[in-house]
Amino acid sequence: MRGSVVLPKRWIVERLFAHLMRTRRLARDYERRTTSAEAVIYWSMTLLMTRRLARPRPSPA
To answer: Is residue 3 part of a domain?
Structure first.
């Protein structure tokens, strides 16, 4: 098989929830306000993005 394969939308959403649940604070509903819950989600996604950006890239052959 050549090229990229389109994943079903379900797997994209499940992968997102897995990344969010890795920060255990989002596993339960501790927040009283939606703004603080939203801030925790932004924090979690920022951690994920910085890890992806800091990952070493393979050198070209």
So the answer is: no
In a domain, 25, yes or no: yes
Domain containing 20: what range? 9-54
Q: For the segment 5-27, what is each residue's pLDDT rounded down to a tens digit? A: 776 778 778 888 888 777 776 66
Predicted structure pTM score: 0.58
The torsion angles phi and psi of 11, rounded to 5 degrees, stand at -70, -30
Closest CA to 44 of 27, 58, 61: 27
Q: What was the pLDDT predicted at 26?
A: 66
| Total tally of structural domains belonging to the chain | 1
